[in-house]
Amino acid sequence: MADTKIENSTMKALQKSNVSRYIQLASLFRQRIESAEWDVGHKIPTVKELADQCGVATMTIRQALDILESEGLIERYRAKGTFVRERPKRDLWCEVKTDWSGMLIARQDATIEILSDTSGGKLPRYDGDIGNAAPSYRHLRRKHSRDGSAFLLADVYVDERICKDIPEEAYSKVTAMRLVSDIPGQTVSDARQIVTIGAADLESSNELNISIGDPIAKVQRVAVNQHGDIILIANGIYRGDMMRIDVKLR
Question: Parallel, antiparallel, or unpaired for β 137-146 and 110-121?
């Protein structure tokens, strides 16, 4: 009876998402390895057993296992079965800061690549309730990497009226908030950060080298000057397997 309940709950969970079944299953199986439900060195259920458990075709299970094999998590042996090789590596080194001073500090050993740079754009979608839109914005798409691995894809919008006061080299060296924090005649009178959890789409999966549907954190940062103008909006997408939020409560 217990096995039947697990099978039914798995099938219902798979039906709730529009993400391809094999990608969802790869994530499910990865979690089983990470939690040691499927321990390192142990044999996992057969393709047919997994297909019956999950209510999907055996081809779908094979596609999911192909992903885990490409990640080096499992090994398949003819006539012997499939065995867990190692657990997923979780390197939660990328801390999303929650204080003003932390947002001004660039991450050590990280590099910023400018993917695109355009002018004359309008204020992007903004879910907050502070500040007024500037006439136009400079829009930079930036990719942040460390040791060759991308961890953040960001769209940075800067009020074009203040761009002349920002050194050009700063756009590929400093954090988004740092761009507008030290401009003569400008005071950041209000700043907000909004964090939401989501799943990688096609574009973010390609840029961050993760699977479609993998967890991501969407971080929107907004800076408003002393005149009530929104001088910066930065929309960032962080890899969920590299970032953490650490908040001091006392």
Answer: antiparallel
